[in-house]
Amino acid sequence: MSRKPGHQARKRFGQNFLHDPGVIERIVRSINPQPDDAMVEIGPGLGALTEELLAATPNLSVVELDRDLIPVLRTKFFNYPGLTIHEADALQFDFRQLVTDGRPLRIVGNLPYNISTPLIFHLLSQAGVVQDMHFMLQKEVVQRLAAVSGDNHYGRLGIMTQYFCKVQPLFEVGPGAFRPAPKVDSAIVRLLPHKVLPHPAKDLITLQTVVRTAFNARRKTLRKALGGLVSVAQLQHLGIDDNLRPEKLTLAQYVAIADHLVAEGAAGSGVPVAGGEG
Which of 46, 140, 141, 186 has fewest C-beta within 10 Å? Predict the structure, then answer.
């Protein structure tokens, strides 16, 4: 099969263009776009998925960083007046500006592997205006998103994503579905923002600080990994074994630690203060 003319995938943008019609159809079927949906696509590339989305819903916003792709998209979809192209970096883009008539956003995208984690964190900060998200990601990233305590892939990304969203891995995609073919397998994941947070923290910054600090030293015990934030006595007060490693704690337990620090007077500081190891 011949390559798409006119644009070579750029490594610096992490571009791997999806071209397999069967995979595209399966993705769109999973998304199930409706005519009235406020659909948003991140990184449309050459428009393979865009075309199928526009066939289902007349109004679509796309966010594309590569300025050379903008005229390609404008030419290909010149007869779709409901397509709005935003030339912007999705990592800096305020997706809340796309909300009209109070309709929550349905965000989709074949995300570049090199920015997938920071982009997900960026989107989680705006989860309040999102109905759902469907992303093509590196398979390992999807495993990290869905991991639970005790899993090898469990860490900061999964904990904070599950704080905001229900994570549903859907199906895997092989390298042959892309041009150029990546060296890793991919997977589709659905993120559904919780209508009510299952474990709401008193202060999100404190929770983020606790989780980040713990997994910066994930091979150490909690006594050492969190030694600068919380004492052994405080952990024991919460019923948490200080000899456990960070990947053994649940989201609820991390929230309990953060809330305890807030109660001790460290709310919103981003650097909670605690006693010594004890």
Answer: 140
